[in-house]
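Weekly structure sync, notes
Attendees: PL, DS, HV (note-taker this week)

Item 1: Response regulator receiver modulated CBS domain protein
DS walked through the input record. Source organism listed as Desulfovibrio ferrophilus. Sequence as pasted into the shared doc:
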Amino acid sequence: MSKIRILMVDDEERFRTITAKILGRKGFETIVAESGERALEKLSESPDVVVLDVKMGGMDGHETLREIKKQHPDLPVIMLTGHGDVPSAEQALKEGAYDYLAKPCDIDLLTAKIQDALHFGQKAIRREKTVKDIMIPIESYTSITETSTVADAIAALQKVHSEMVVTDRLMDTRHRSLLIFTESGELVGILSPNDLIQATLPAYIFAPKPSMADSLQYSPMFWQGMFTSRVHEIMNLEVAEVMSEKPLQVDSTTNLMEAAHAMSTGHRRRVAVMEGGKIIGVIREQEVFYEIASIISNS
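Item 1 (cont.): predicted structure, written out as tokens:
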């Protein structure tokens, strides 16, 4: 299946670059244009959806939108407007925009809007999406092997956090867990910050004790220095010793109600998407939430 091609039009270079990179991680192919004039030239590259900033030098977003609609009436366009700029957004809708988002733009919401705009542009009868439609591609999800140490896992999670983007125009908080594989590539677990917090707690804290010991054990003196010493103790453990069990696995053709049922009854925040016996992606609570929001907004 070919990637969805997005034409991103914005006169701010940093925004274009960061957005293209993030959308690429989410499985989209992104064409960038720095102006309305350049965007019209890029239409020859056959984008599936256009994401267009309203305020640009030269040909602004509204003028660009009108010209796009003259040339490609069925090409869906999502407008990016300033926070609270309702008149501009309403004008864009009258001019043929599919929808609009106010800045700062949440990248997960933008992704959901792009998916919806594509169905709209194809004039498809709305169907319920499958997990494959909304998943994070596996190549965009950070993973390590089960023999890696806790220190290695911390470094990998810190790298993920350092790549999070929160600016006045864009928000992308990425994922907060690691997939754990064997050396042969079999998915065996997942590691989240909560797993690491749990690992710092020594087993004897949970051991049965006489009630008279409660006041002593939980006094400030008891806890003093324990956290630092426990972190030093676990840092060289293999992640296999502290990880959670692997996510539930569903086939790539699974519909969202079945996936939601599996997540709810299994008390899981993530589900692994499988195809041909291999994991190809992950869906999280966030992806399901934005699909719920999308259905409501289109009702």
